[in-house]
HRAS-like suppressor 3 (Elysia marginata), 194 residues
Amino acid sequence: MEKFKDVVTMSQNKTLLSELQPGDLVEFPRGVYSHWGVYIGNELISHLAGEEDDGINAAMRPEYVFTICGVRFNKAKVCLENFWNIVEDCCARKNNQSDKKMQPLSREEILVNATSKLGEVGYSLIYSNCEHFAKWCRYGISKSDQVESVMTGLAVGFGAALTAGLVYAFAKYKGDSTTEKEDEESEQKKMQIS
């Protein structure tokens, strides 16, 4: 079964590579996240690649998850690499979906952007990752839908937890004040009986 999957994946990647046009964005799904690059032509991808294959495969080092303060760390650089060195065992896909929301630059501008930063070092998971780079190349706007989805999920989760905490605190306070009132009334009845 594994061999069949490898053959199918290889075939799909070959088909994709034959259909890619210079300036297309290429997404490399890695399970939890996707790696992104810009197709240059001749099987070359311009992408922000990490040290020790970080950002290329799922061997993401935990200390890089907390690069959220706008600081760019020297853990990745923009480079040109052969499609086959990046794709590994995933089914890559062309992903120009943001064309529906943003105007892509001309092919020439995209390629200039994709090659103008070669060798530039710096990375921030939240502000400057491989998807930010790829979308900046194509649209002139640094954007990561993956980061925005996670941040939205965190905000919704935080809001739900805060609401649940407030409801619990209110219910507990109301219950405590009701208990105090009942205790007070009971004490008054005892005094009247005596």
